[in-house]
């Protein structure tokens, strides 16, 4: 039985380069209540770019 508001929800990280590439991960809502921004590899443009949390 899952809770309605899970402490570690599944989120999508979308590339800011505009390629449409996404990563799927989990985050702890208590420790990081703000939207997540990470630098990760985008294979479509073969560069490291910022990925922002999408809800």
From TrEMBL:
One GO cellular component term, please give it: ribosome
* Keyword Ribosomal protein on entry: yes
UniProt keywords, alphabetically: Ribonucleoprotein, Ribosomal protein
Asked if the record carries the keyword Transferase, the reply is: no
Q: Name one Pfam family in it.
A: Ribosomal_L33
- HAMAP family, per this entry? Ribosomal_bL33
| Family the UniProt entry places it in | Belongs to the bacterial ribosomal protein bL33 family.
Know the name of this protein?
Large ribosomal subunit protein bL33
